[in-house]
Design goal:
By secondary structure, the chain is α+β, with helices and mostly antiparallel strands. It is built from eleven helices and eleven strands. It starts with a helix and ends with a helix. This is Acyl-CoA dehydrogenase.
Length: 387
Amino acid sequence: MTERAQAIAAKIETFIRDVVIPYEKDPRCGSHGPSDELVQELRDKAREAGVLTPHILADGSHFTQRETAIALIKTGLSPLGPLACNTMAPDEGNMYLLGKVGTSEQKKRFLDQLVSGASRSAFFMTEPAGDNGAGSDPSMMLTTCKLDGNHWVINGRKTFITGADGAKVGIVMAKSDDGACMFLVDLPDPAIRIVRVLETIDSSMPGGHAEIDIDNLRVPADQMLGASGEGFKYAQIRLSPARLSHCMRWLGLCMRANEIASDYACRRNAFGKPLVDHEGVGFMLAENLIDIKQCELMIDWCASVLDSGSLGTNESSMAKVAVSEALMRIADRCVQVMGGMGVSGDTIVEQAFREVRAFRIYDGPTEVHKWSLAKKIKRDWKAAQHG
């Protein structure tokens, strides 16, 4: 690992533990995530500490994925950490995509405000499953875009759009006659209406997750991201590293939850000895250490694949499944070790459990990734039979 990444990771950890964690009980943290006022207050402090958007360098270049991993894991030590350091979804993934696909003008207009931490963004892809729209299957997308002079006109519905309420930059996916397309839009826009913000199990992302109606949204042609019909390709450019970034951040939170549970088990006495000395408790904490190490190794392996220049779709699917399921086990054991305290809001253990439970679904449920990997097994088998 590079010295620059180790140095910034240490700096981030100090900032999270000393500055961010005391904000976890702030009343501006609500069921739909922290308020934008709180986000900006934390980002001002991160800017002063030199840890704002730490994975993107001053010249616009990025850390490698392996370097990004140790930085993002540290930001994840608090649910507020990624927001403070500007490494949170969907912004982190949107910044990555814009950096890879955006034109110079698009980067200046849309990317710069995200990298600086001045604005939040939203990624409009998922559609209501009840309308047979693009839930976990983006090929079923019903949102349309049609060229009208020098503008594209977009109509459709979206759901579970994270951070739409309060976002300043949007990336909207729609289908043209050529196929899937992506568009950059300024928010808010009267043609993009928030129908409601859903009540969900997680509460770490500002703006929550919204249902959206898009009614005759007019987007200048030069705000199309890339080329018409190439949207699915761009989605994979974004989603492969974004899945891995989720793994990094939530691993950090589960590491902290395990710290809290371990401290509790060593201090709490029951039946004549500390809880940790009871095998039923001590073994759970030992299993947590094993799962944490396996998560670290899986993240590092997948990051290495992405750094090699591969799109890493299969690898990121494997990492997303393995890490999200392991983190669920870790969070669950932490709750169990702490008993009644584990389900209370007195520590972040309870929130870690809720956030990680949601993580098993977003950016592709476990079952969708397994299905995708099973298709690869079949393709490889057929190729071997004819090879």
